User: What shape does this take?
Amino acid sequence: MPKFRLNRRYVISELLKQREDTLVVNGLGGTCWDIASLGDNDFNFYVWGGMGNACMIGLGLALSQPKKKVIVITGDGEMLMGIGSLATIALKQPKNLSIVVFDNELYGETGSQKTHTAYSTNLSKIAIGSGIINSSIITTKADLLLLCSKIHQIKNLSFSVIKINQEQEEIVLPIREGAYIKSRFRKALLGEKILLE
Assistant: This one.
């Protein structure tokens, strides 16, 4: 029996089931493919080749678009690389930002080496220590569905670690052209003309 029962594709489908115009920033690898598995969306900001940057991109969006809900969905490996971002995010306290970490305790893209969360590192406690008080670890379907019921609301800054199993899922690659992703996202958000660079 796996250590954790929640499957990443089930989790992503529940998280984004009621998304409407929520802005979604993904981390590298698995979370990018999870979001792409639901189909493309102009409000998806796919981060390619910038490990550790997803949370800060999400913060910038949340601060510049306070009436829009922003969700960052990233993995434990990327969160560990960008851990310092939590202090800045906590300082700014954007009420429209939610950070969700898919934690399978592995660096899935580089050979499935264990991350620090497989040992003693608790990302939720680090978030709380940084000043993100609304922080939790989710391991059950009931807790996941409770999170899903409120994650698209603009209410308060939140940080959620979702413990997922280590099952490998089909790789679903979204568009990869960075300039196009940026321009398309801006057009959807601001109505600007797409400029391909």
